């Protein structure tokens, strides 16, 4: 039978691991959000299209989303991005635009500050 001290230690360890996972998730989320910003700036896309493009690049290069995001965020400062990601970007931007058109998403040029133009 496990004593109270052992149970408390096990629970503390489990909670510390959970906090570590949550911290890593927050870092990854922030990195992905920044990468979406880079993609929408480069491609002239809306945020949801930037997310679609980022996912497309990850899926079609077989590189984890977090790693694609890191490369995209570091690109402006480093002045370079891995060739496989650079080659995948135009197709991913086009995919995101085509997907938005197929889904009937509203064109950002038609709406300003939440009001029709």
UniProtKB/TrEMBL annotation:
- UniProt xrefs under InterPro entries: ANTAR, CheY-like_superfamily, WH-like_DNA-bd_sf
One Pfam entry name: ANTAR
In this protein, which residues make up the domain named ANTAR?
12-73
Gene3D superfamilies in the cross-refs: Winged helix-like DNA-binding domain superfamily/Winged helix DNA-binding domain (1.10.10.10)
Top-level division of the source organism's lineage = Bacteria
What start-end ranges are recorded for coiled-coil regions in this protein? none
Q: What is this protein called?
A: ANTAR domain-containing protein
């Amino acid at each position: 039978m496990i004593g109270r001290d052992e149970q408390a230690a096990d629970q503390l360890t489990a909670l510390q691991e959970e906090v570590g996972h949550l911290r890593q998730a927050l870092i990854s989320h922030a990195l992905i959000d920044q990468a979406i910003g880079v993609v929408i700036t480069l491609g002239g896309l809306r945020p949801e299209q930037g997310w679609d493009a980022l996912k497309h690049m990850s899926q079609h290069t077989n590189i984890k989303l977090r790693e694609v995001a890191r490369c995209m965020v570091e690109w402006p400062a480093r002045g370079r991005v891995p060739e496989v990601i650079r080659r995948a970007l135009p197709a991913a931007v086009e995919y995101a635009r085509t997907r938005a058109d197929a889904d009937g998403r509203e064109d950002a040029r038609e709406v300003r500050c939440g009001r029709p133009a």
